[in-house]
Amino acid sequence: MTVPFPEVKQPDALPEELCACTSFLLARLGYAIKLSALEAFEEEGFSLYQYSVLAVLGEGTRETQATIADTLKLDRGQLVGVLDGLEEAGLIERRRDQVDRRRHTVSLTPAGRKQIGKMRAIVKRIEDQYFEPLDAETRANLHDALLRVAANQDSRFQHS
Amino acid sequence: MTVPFPEVKQPDALPEELCACTSFLLARLGYAIKLSALEAFEEEGFSLYQYSVLAVLGEGTRETQATIADTLKLDRGQLVGVLDGLEEAGLIERRRDQVDRRRHTVSLTPAGRKQIGKMRAIVKRIEDQYFEPLDAETRANLHDALLRVAANQDSRFQHS
DNA sequence: TATTGTTATACTCTATAACTATA
DNA sequence: TATAGTTATAGAGTATAACAATA
């Protein structure tokens, strides 16, 4: 059987060697989706760091700054600025720990909890864009595989 | 039925909200695996950029610097330094295009072709480490899903 | 004037290291 | 002395813009 339209190779197509490389796809795709999310968040005046911090606080346990930083693999010095922004926006509260006055206990405000919902919607929108070519099952399998790999190399990832 | 060892939640566990986020996993994992690769390549005195450039040239078609940069989404100015390193190491050759003397035609040397094999082995080693928790089929499915998503958002990715 | 490769500059992130206040 | 949070500094990585040669 003849091929009426033989594969037209694009002039700037990535080499097969790299397309065959799962790690290359992972790195490229991860960076691209991060950039998209970053852009979307910035339009609303927020950052991805802020979202991840709110997500940590959303788990209910009150946290000290050090544990938040460790959880997110964030530099403690870097976290300060993130919390400053969140506090200014009224999304979190810092209170001195009365037992150990060096520590700050960080907690969500009601406004902060509300904001998580909005941020979650942004993430969902972006993920739906990216994973649109996958059906629900494939997408779930993708997530499961990534989570297993992530949990295997970093114990902070918890898989069910 | 009682649970003898109830789930011990790690103190620095990532919030479920983020673990449930495919894009978060993708970004985190992509960055982690890139760092690992970077480190491994640097031990051999090479960079990931160099590998990707060699991989492009390995496809057989002789390229001009601009097309290489475009393919890899690299800045043209940045590419210069990468090529300098590769040329110094004797892995590539730059020749003036006789038709258009502004252009440089870049091609692999035999040593360069040989080096691709070594670099490929490094990548394989790292991928085997990361994807070790997945069986062959799951891993293939993961790759396929990523490639489809990548091709959907960037036409340079070619899927079979 | 526009384009190729080159070089130089500036900006963003991040990583490191001081600094303070409490313990 | 050691630790939590803060602040300041330095480095890598990247993006932008000027530059010389050729078209």
Task: Walk me through what this model shows.
- The structure is a homodimer of 160-residue chains.
- Chain A is mainly α.
- Chain A has 7 helices and 3 strands; from the N terminus they run H-H-H-E-H-H-E-E-H-H.
- In chain A, a hairpin with a 7-residue loop joins strand 2 (92-96) and strand 3 (104-108).
- In chain A, helix 2 crosses helix 6.
- The longest helix of chain A has 22 residues, at 22-43.
- The first copy, chain A, is elongated.
- Chain A starts with 15 loop residues before the first helix and ends in a 7-residue tail after the last helix.
- The model of chain A has no long low-confidence stretch (mean pLDDT 91).
- At the A-B interface, helix 1, helix 2, helix 3, helix 4 and helix 6 of A face helix 1, helix 2, helix 3, helix 4 and helix 6 of B.
- Chain A binds a DNA duplex (23 and 23 nucleotides) through helix 5.
What can be said about this structure in brief?
2 copies of one chain form a homodimer. Chain A is mainly alpha-helical and 160 residues long.
Shape of chain A: elongated
Distance between the termini of chain A: 49 Å
- List low-confidence stretches of chain A: none
Total strands of chain A: the figure is 3
**Binned strand content of chain A:** 5-15%
**Approximately how much helix is present in the residues of chain A?**
55-70%
